[in-house]
Lipoprotein (Oleiagrimonas citrea), 137 residues
Amino acid sequence: MMKRFALATLACVALLAVSACTKAVLKPAPAISVPSGVSQAQVKKSIVSALEGRKWTLDKIEDGTILSTLHLRDHTATIRITYNTQAVNITYLHSTNLDYSQRGSTRYIHRNYNGWISYLEQDITRNLQNLSATQGG
């Protein structure tokens, strides 16, 4: 009986360890600074190019706001990107099958989400810097 209890406890601990490995704290994306001299239309083009390059769908595009979703197998992540000539901000909206949860004020999500957003930030930043460099800014 004791051996069965020990095995059950070990199985639970292992299951918790595995599930903890797939979750990470959902990190708020830092604002991306827009170089001076870059127009709002150019900022939008830089964002759209980065999204399309990373296979995000463009769900809704309005002046200053883009809603976009990444579809990977049976997982989705939807974000809102707000932008102007000063900054670009990426905000998590919702997801499917990414184990999103919140405990207190801390939000958790599949560990890959933060990487996807980081790659997107890098691409947007590079696109904006390339624009600035070609304008001599």
